[in-house]
Amino acid sequence: MYEERPSRLPGAVVWEISRSEGRPVLPDGCMDLIWTPGDLFVAGPDTRAHPGGDRPPGARYAGVRLAPGTAPALLGVPAHELRDRRVPLADLRGAARARSLTARLDAAPDPVTALERIVLRAAADAPEPPDPLIAEVVRRLAEGTPVAVTAAAVGLGERRLHRRSLHAFGYGPKTLARVLRLQRALALIRRGTPHAVAAAAVGCADQAHLARETRALAGTTLSAYAASLPAPAGSGEASAKRETPRPSGSRTTA
């Protein structure tokens, strides 16, 4: 079972999985600090679906999903160094610090809240606040603004925006725009929007374009994704479909 709530850290989400079903984790532009008993690690920004089957069934996980572009200041490492990786916190903050934090979470009566406090402290101790320019880039790309127009709006050339994006997001603005566009399309599909309508709404050329993006970024087809969604109430479908699979580095029950 998956549960989430907004974090006290602006833009972040606190989540917990108490049962793993092995669904893949889809790219969402975010990075996560994740705890499971005895381990604390960072999920870097994904450019493709990450297999969910590597999590043992029944394992408990808690995490804080950090909004696109906000994690590097907290972790002290450029996002591109963590792209498509799951990295032990010990590799980023030192073994002694990671062991101490992991032990604290293992012993906490509420590891989810304790993990959020750790992230809030890291944000308070960060040498610089989040870059408002990066937040504006995310906002514009999430709305479907073209990369060239976004670069001009924030006062950067496309090459400079690309360099800034590698540090902040782990990849260039065009990749982030594709990831965010796919997220918007899949959100519409989860609400019952026909595939062709969802494709047009997010700026894809046609349904075939959206299908190619789904295959490339999510590792599945539109029909398979739609089939994995929960059945309408009272339909009698199997309980395995009750939970909505969420296209996110931390929102997926996997």
TrEMBL record:
Keywords carried by this UniProt record: DNA-binding, Transcription, Transcription regulation
Specify one Pfam family.
DUF6597
Q: Which domain of life is it from?
A: Bacteria
Q: InterPro entries, from UniProt?
A: AraC_XylS_family_regulators, DUF6597, HTH_AraC
Q: Does the record's keyword annotation contain Transcription regulation?
A: yes
Q: Where is this region: Disordered?
A: 230-254
Q: Which residues form the HTH araC/xylS-type domain?
A: 131-228
- What protein name applies here? Helix-turn-helix domain-containing protein
Lineage of the organism: Bacteria, Bacillati, Actinomycetota, Actinomycetes, Kitasatosporales
